[in-house]
Each structure stands twice: as structure tokens, then as C-alpha cells.
TrEMBL record:
UniProt signal peptide: 1-24
Keyword Iron: no
Annotated source species: Candidatus Alectryocaccomicrobium excrementavium
Gene3D superfamilies hit by this protein: CAP
Keywords: Signal
Protein name: SCP domain-containing protein
Record-linked Pfam families: CAP
CDD domains cross-referenced by the UniProt entry: CAP_bacterial
Occurrences of domain SCP (ranges): 45-156
Source lineage: Bacteria, Bacillati, Bacillota, Clostridia, Candidatus Alectryocaccomicrobium
Domain of life: Bacteria
Signal keyword on record: yes
Length: 159
């Protein structure tokens, strides 16, 4: 199966199982985020502001990619920076045609997005990614298990 067909099949399945707000990928809008994703962006904004950093531009395509990764982990039962479907974050960005000069991601599996953000801040490597001044754009995706736990993906890029 061609990669685009595989993606379209996965995306269609995800929309049936996990409805999301769909919009064109040109501009960020709060309407394109689910409540947990919007909450996560607010936590990132608050945390970065506390350290004198601005929030990177929220990018609709990066949010969609982060959401795809979160759902990929949920559906395929793994928790890793290396997706069996897409590879690492750089491979995934290239797969979806994203131009970038640098990229990183934070992933969490937690009770809530608030706990996920607290875990990112308490880990030196995740905090370095989260607080990096080099990032120009970011996206957030959240997938929720039937039990209410969340998979959170934060994608950061420098363009």
C-alpha cells in the first residue's frame, strides 16, 4: 500500500474512532484543537512565560502530526519516540512534507495533560526541549484511552 493511501486509511479510521475538529492546515485556530490540546498549549505558554520565553507559533500542520503520533501510539499499543509506522520525529516530519532546520518532540502517557506537563518539567531532557529558545513553531496532539489516560505529543521545530 502506498504511504499516502496508508495515511488516508489511518486518518479516516482515526476520524471515526476519535472525532476531531478539522480545518485547513494553513492557520492555527483554537477551534482546531480538542479541549485537552488547548489546555496543554496554555500550560506550555504559562511555563515558558515564567522563564521569560515566548510561545513558539502554534502550527496547524504540526498539531495534526502530533495528533497522528498520539493516536498511532494509542492504536498500536506502544510508547516510544520511534513509531513503527512513521519512524522518529524527523522521519515523520519529512513523510508529511514539513520543512525544518531542527526538530524535537516530547511524549507522555499520563492521567491528565496537567500531569504530563508536570512530568515534562521535572525531566531535564524534556524541560530542555520544552524551554528551548531555538523553536519557532510547535504543535500539540492528545489521544485519550477508553480509561481516560492521555497520550500527549509536543512537536517543536525551527524553520
Amino acid at each position: 500500500m502506498k504511504p499516502i493511501h496508508r495515511f488516508l486509511c489511518l486518518a479516516t479510521a482515526l476520524l471515526v474512532v476519535f472525532p476531531i475538529h478539522c480545518q485547513a492546515m494553513t492557520n492555527y485556530s483554537a477551534a482546531m484543537l480538542n479541549a485537552q490540546e488547548a489546555e496543554m498549549i496554555n500550560f506550555v505558554r504559562e511555563d515558558r512565560t515564567r522563564y521569560g520565553l515566548s510561545l513558539p507559533t502554534i502550527d496547524a500542520q504540526l498539531c495534526e502530526i502530533a495528533r497522528i503520533k498520539a493516536n498511532d501510539m494509542l492504536i498500536n499499543g506502544y510508547f516510544s519516540h520511534n513509531s513503527p509506522t512513521y519512524g522518529d520525529i524527523r522521519s515523520m516530519l519529512s513523510h508529511f512534507g514539513v520543512a525544518y532546520k531542527g526538530a524535537s518532540e516530547n511524549i507522555a502517557r499520563s492521567r491528565t495533560v496537567e500531569h504530563a506537563e508536570a512530568a515534562f518539567l521535572s525531566s531535564a531532557s524534556h524541560r530542555i526541549t520544552l524551554m528551548g529558545s531555538q523553536w519557532t513553531h510547535m504543535g500539540v496532539g492528545v489521544a485519550t484511552t477508553p480509561e481516560g489516560f492521555v497520550y500527549v505529543v509536543q512537536v517543536f521545530v525551527r524553520r
